[in-house]
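Question:
When you can, review this sequence-structure pair and walk me through the tokens.
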Amino acid sequence: LEELDDFSDSGSDYEATMKATKRRKQAVPGPWPPKRPRRKAALKVTSSPSSSPIPTAADPSLQQHSRGTSRQASPRPVTRVNEGNRGISAEDIYDAVCSGKSAMVTVVDEWLDSYKLSREAGLLVLINFIVQSCGCKGVVSREMFDSMQNAEIISTLTKEFNEDSVNYPLCTPGPQLKRFKAGLCEFARVLVRSCRNSLIYDEHLFPSLLALLTGLSDSQVRAFRHTSTLLAMKLMTGLVEVAVIVSVQLQTTQRRYDMENSKRAHDRASDRLEELQASISELQENREEVSSLMNATFRGVFVHRYRDRLPEIRAACIEELGMWLKTDPEDFLNDGCLKYLGWTLHDKQSPVRLQCVRALQGLYQENEFIGRLELFTSRFKERILSMVLDKDSDVAVEVVNLLLLIQQKTEEGLREDECGHIYPLVYASHRGLASAAGVFLYNKLKSVIASDNQGNDKSENAAFFQIFISFYIQSEFHEHGAYLVDSLWGVAGSELRDWETMTALLLQDAGLMYEEEGALIELMMCAIRQAAQATPPVGRTQGKKILSMKDKKVQEQDRRRITAHFIPLLPQLLAKYSADAGKVSLLLKAPLYFDLEMYNSSPQLEKHLDLLLSQTCGIVEKHTEVTVLEACAHLASTLCSDRYTFSSRAHLAFSQLVDSLTECFSTYLSDLLQGTADDDDVYSAATALKRIAALSSAKDPTGWKLFDSCLELLKGRMESRELDKELMVSALKCAAFHLMWAKVNAVNSTPAEAELKHLKKEVRLFCRVCQNCLSLNQAEIRDQAFELLCDLLLLYSVSSARSEPALQTLVHLPSDSLRSEMAAFLLDYVFSDTEDAELNVEGEEEMKITLLQRKRNQLAGYCKLVIYGVLDLTAATDVFKHYSKYFKDFGDIIKETVSKSKLISPVQSAKTVCLSLQQLFSEMLTEDHSRQDLGEIRDLAKRLAMSFGIDLHRVRKPLVALHMDGIRFAFRDPQEGEEQHPNKAFLEILSEFSFKLLQQDRAQLAAFLKSECPSGALSWPPVRLYQRSLEVRSSSKPREQEEGGDAVSSHDTPVAKRKRTTAQGSVSSTVRGSWLDSSSIHSSLHTPALTSTVQRQPTKQLASRKPRATESDISSGLTEPESQDEFSSGSQMRKVKPTKRRQLSSSQTGPTLDQQDLNSNLTLLSLIEDDNEEREEPEIEDYESDSERDSTYTLV
């Protein structure tokens, strides 16, 4: 497009120069064809000097001339045809577009037939269709069409909108939106395609249509602006396609002409030359005509709307720009157009950034475009790299895909430090982003392998694992192998399923280094899990995915392959790495993913089962690490399952192992009980007991009758105060597992009454021992005793025996002393910061996390005792009163406990909440009365009040009971030596629950307050504050003036109280009930839904006025620089400097309504913005990536 390349010859800063070479023979002179001069004139639309694709200097005096252009009637007579018998109507086209079922070609053909009968009538139908598509109920009449200019028509239509018309077809939610938008876009595409050989060049249809769309796109009404911009952009895309076709035809015809002209004179066909010359001239005229239309649309619509306030409009513009760049690179693929994509990368709305990145993907996919993109790449690569951490995951995924294209297609690619922005994303919690980063990493690894493997005999997969292991080690995200494997599973599935290569690397003697072996084993086990379970790791699941039949078939095939390959090799791997606790604990997980029935398929495989059992038993006897013993116990539990026919062999192997361990322990028991055992004896006994305890979690240990021995050992050690940590923790576990298995056996059989009584006695004795352990200064013993108590009390509770009446004998309730001991443990060791302070050293972050996990486990165990009725609800006060202070660490557990307690007994739960606040208040009085402490208790009360939910009728009784308890507490009789009514300040805390009360309950409680409080107490500040919180106020009365109170709506629905704030510059009214003072004129809220930022004041402001950018301006975040130099020279993007919007007083807003009727203008407030509001063009904000400040990606 010549016009897109150089606008300096144009008569104004934007002029739709319709070339008239084709029409030179017409009698009427002038730049516009005589057919419809008003149509052509209307194409001149305002543009700022910086609005061109390649900005040039322009005459500012012409900036406003198009808005004053009058629409004159056509000079030739118009033949009027009966409108009712014309054919297709605007409603017919609209219905066809909305339904999405009609063949759009037929609809367009019907309209074209009517247009050919009467151009004005046909165009009027099309205009009314556009108006109806905007959601406007108005209709453009023939008289309006002939006598009014575009601006006047649009102004008239604007007034046809209802103030309730915040929705229009393009913003209607649901499937209807997609259907209508697709139909509208298809209509525009088919219209251009049907007219490309004829009506595009008739100087009437498309100039008039684009003139109207340009005017509508400049409207203040969002519906007009959005719909017309979308249509104009789609028409522009069609015109670009037509321009490309015409250019190809022109080049072909020119080649034919040159070939014919190059012949010798006597061989030339003069008729042929004349025909080709005429075709060339016609095609050139067509090309110029289309270029003029494209120029008009680009300069009149795109340049303004790509920075519109509405993100949907900006996204539509950028999406179509990407199409133009790719379809017609000769005219559009230059720095003057690419700059719009570069600027839009900084848009604040993710849909716009997404369309921008997708447009760039389409460009970088084409090899022939790479050279033209060099300057763009160098300018905006840094911004693109920062967008991999975009807070919108869809944008980040597309950015990673774009960077992969840049890496593959461009000559320079990405440097290693630039690739470092993408590598960590393979550990991101968002699976789509992690998979995209996995594809990038895989391509990078393959390119490195290709360059390193030249002349190397090593297999490609072996080389892949070597470099893959190196990446995993260097990334330093250990124990996150499952996420790395999942990221690469889609693109490198064949390599990660190459079990043969992995096991060969592990079994060869001179293969991998020690650290590399550990990394490969971890990655191999992660790949086995991924293949066998066909599910992503924790944190990457997006809802419950149901596997398809094809996926299930692949999963079964993978399991069979894994089982067949690892059954013979796993014993060898266990034998090689049996001394390494970390590696062997990983390898022991492999059989959990096997198809274990295959062990019975042949005698050869049964031998491998015996080898696996012997290796496992050997590992138990060799190791004392908890992770290894737990892995062995898990494997033992799986192999001993009764569903497998070989389970008897597994039972035998592990029973023999426990026999030997029990015998070892028994040899040292007498010395331990007598106190004559040395350190070696204690260590041997402790390790044997530790192994037995680990296996007891998977195998019933009651047959070895170790309970009495362990109990005697615990009693003896506590009496002698010889507290060996390993020995006592293992003894506690063994005894507890004995009691747990005994309960299971009692449920599965019918034991005698004597056996049940004996078992209950054992439970009572063990609980007494554990209670004594709670006061020890050994943290490991103390913690283990508390956790086992929580489990056993729950297992032998009343609720556990409801389904088995015969087991009522076994019910064991905790004694009062045990309850108090457990509550004291909670306060001393869970809700305590002493241990955290001890660990507040650099490098001990992992220890702090472990400690927090242990505390959470202990708190959850205690809360379960409350929820299941083992402890009274009043015991929960020790938990509830720490809800606010420890919300970060335990908030979810406490919140769930509060919620469950309401299901047990709503009234008792509310009383417990009140009791916890009373306890805190009493503690505050005994220590030191402080307003700060009272404020903290009020904050806790606010948080607890929110737990009562929004169904106020359901919580009436609990809330009234809470208030009555609180009032009684506030006015209870003083103790000896106390001042009169020391608890009266508790009413301030109680007032935080008042906003949840219904009106009738407020009155009841107000009366109860007067009956309880002594004479003269009603004037006390806390009492007055509480009384105000019970008052019912009308919604018109500002609730902020009532200190400490809350307002209720006319429907008795409570609203949260807010602190009163006065906006700077606002004018407060003396008339409290005035509608005008409460309207949006004086508010600093967002402008209504149907608004625009198009109409702006001139850039030059009076000296007395301070230029500022409104919030709506800033939302766009885009403005082009003054010249192309700002793009090509690499100057930094400028920052938006937002300032506060100045609120207008009633005296200021009056003159801005153009003396029109006040009511009509107030009606239009929901549609348009105040024309007189001063604005400042927002400039490009070079803010960091959204993600750099607020990334939602977490490394899992």
Observations:
- Confidence is low (pLDDT under 50) at residues 1-86, 1034-1196.
- The first helix runs from residue 2 to 5.
- The chain is about 60% helix and 0% strand.
